[in-house]
Write a structure and sequence with these properties.
Blueprint: H1 14-64, E1 69-74, E2 79-85, H2 87-94, E3 119-125, E4 130-131, E5 140-144, E6 151-153, H3 155-158, E7 174-179, E8 185-186, E9 191-192, E10 198-203, E11 209-216, E12 223-227
């Protein structure tokens, strides 16, 4: 005859369950600020990387000869567009009284239908949480093979120079990316918010594109750019 043994099985008491929930809440509360910062930093970094990709694609098309002259335009809505013209249209402009000036009006047909001389290479609209200081509507950067007709237009040309490190000369060939809630985003004054990431794209007349991240020195309000 089988005898059923009594088992001493106990569940959680209400007090024990409340204690566990309280511990979980405390741990989650401690980790949330770091997770939130990681999300913000990742967002800004992702937008900077997309523009690096867009600019690199445009300058690569220049070097390949697909579009010997390209224009990357910025506007206040966050839209960044890269368009190029073919060799025939560029040659006609060069042989005219004026060389390309990096104005949209240098060539016709800046539209989505690509019915004119400008042809779309790519575009990206920044997320609303990310912005580019100092580059307003009309700012543009133009690249050409060998850098002969490289030019900046609008605020891309007028923004102040910065010195990124001791080995690099001062330059205004840069685009900065910051979070809209950042209390400071000033590459000229090296002033940034410790709670928000800042990224920068440095470009050369020859189409070299590099991305940098602003890193604060330990226990200091100053920092430096790190090439990524």
């Amino acid at each position: 005859m089988l005898v059923q043994q009594k088992q001493n099985i106990k569940g959680f008491s209400l007090i024990e369950l409340l204690v566990v929930l309280a511990i979980i809440s405390i741990i989650a509360g401690m980790g949330y600020p770091e997770f939130s910062k990681w999300q913000r930093d990742r967002l800004v970094k992702g937008e900077a990387e997309r523009i690096v990709s867009l600019m690199t694609t445009a300058t690569t098309r220049v070097e390949m000869g697909n579009y010997p002259y390209v224009r990357i335009a910025f506007n206040n809505s966050g839209l960044i567009e890269a368009k190029g013209v073919g060799q025939t249209d560029l040659s006609k402009k060069i042989n005219s009284p004026n060389d390309p000036s990096c104005e949209q009006a240098d060539f016709t047909g800046w539209n989505t239908a690509d019915t004119g001389q400008w042809k779309t290479i790519g575009s990206h609209t920044l997320k609303t949480e990310v912005y580019i200081p100092s580059l307003g509507t009309g700012a543009a950067i133009c690249f050409s093979k060998g850098g002969k007709y490289f030019k900046q237009y609008g605020t891309a040309a007028s923004q102040s120079n910065i010195k990124m490190d001791k080995d690099l000369a001062e330059t205004n060939n840069y685009v900065t990316f910051c979070h809209v809630k950042s209390s400071a985003c000033n590459p000229v004054g090296s002033s940034f918010d410790k709670d928000y990431a800042a990224f920068l794209i440095r470009y050369s007349r020859f189409g070299t594109i590099n991305k940098y991240n602003w890193v604060f020195e330990k226990n200091k309000s100053t920092g430096y750019w790190v090439n990524q």
